[in-house]
Amino acid sequence: MDKTDKKILNLLQADCTLSVSEIAEHVNLSTTPCWKRIKRLEDEGIIKARVALLDGAKIQLGISVFVHIKTQHHDTEWLESFASRVMHYDEVVECYRMSGEWDYLLRVVVKDIAAFDAFYKNLINGIDGLSNVTSSFSMEEIKYTTKLPIT
User: Fold this and answer.
1) DSSP classification of residue 128
2) DSSP state of 107
3) In this structure, are residues 120 and 75 in contact, taking their beta carbons and an 8 Å threshold?
4) What is the pLDDT of residue 37?
5) Which residues of the chain are under the pLDDT cut of 50?
6) Which of 16, 46, 73, 100 could form a disulfide with 50 if both were Cys (CB 3.0 to 4.6 A apart)?
């Protein structure tokens, strides 16, 4: 990946609605070579998707909850089962297997405390083998970005 690819990626991270000709102009390429670079970046999986980012608060999904999970199970079969079940919860927007004190970290987005309570009950009753589940509510979003620091 060269400097031009990085410029293209930074432009797309800031605004994926830019046309290929606009991107090409910013990186001093003609349209076809620019399009070929973008296509290659997509084919290689560097560009995973082009999406619209929504303001959760404006669509009544303004509560972020970080759910820390411990389990007694660390075998591959349990992990695959857990991952499969977590994928079915629309409220879970991020899920990580962690090192350290907690085994998993989920970021859950809901409209209110009652919605989280329903999610929580569904989670603890729907997944066997959870030994400790604790939640932290985000009080204020200070920084949120999907833009990776490409230099």
Assistant:
1) T
2) E
3) no
4) 98
5) none
6) 16
Partners of 105 in the β-ladder? 68, 96
DSSP track, 49-75: ---PPP-GGGGT--EEEEEEEEES--S
CA distances to 18, 25, 41, 131, 136 from 38, rounded to whole Å, are 12, 14, 5, 45, 39
Q: Residue 63, Cα to own-chain centre: how many angstroms?
A: 16
- SS3 category, 108: strand
- Please compute Rg for the chain using Cα positions: 20
50 vs 87: CA distance, rounded Å: 20
Tokens of 146: 């999907």
The two three-digit tokens of residue 60, written as one number: 């009544």
For residue 59, the one-letter residue type is I
Longest CA span, the chain: 57
d(CA 128, CA 112) in angstroms, rounded, equals 26
Residue closest to 103 by CA, chosen among 80, 72, 70, 77: 70
What is the rounded distance in angstroms from the CA atom of residue 91 to the CA atom of residue 121? 13
Q: How is residue 84 written in tokens?
A: 């499969």
- As a residue count, the chain comes to 151
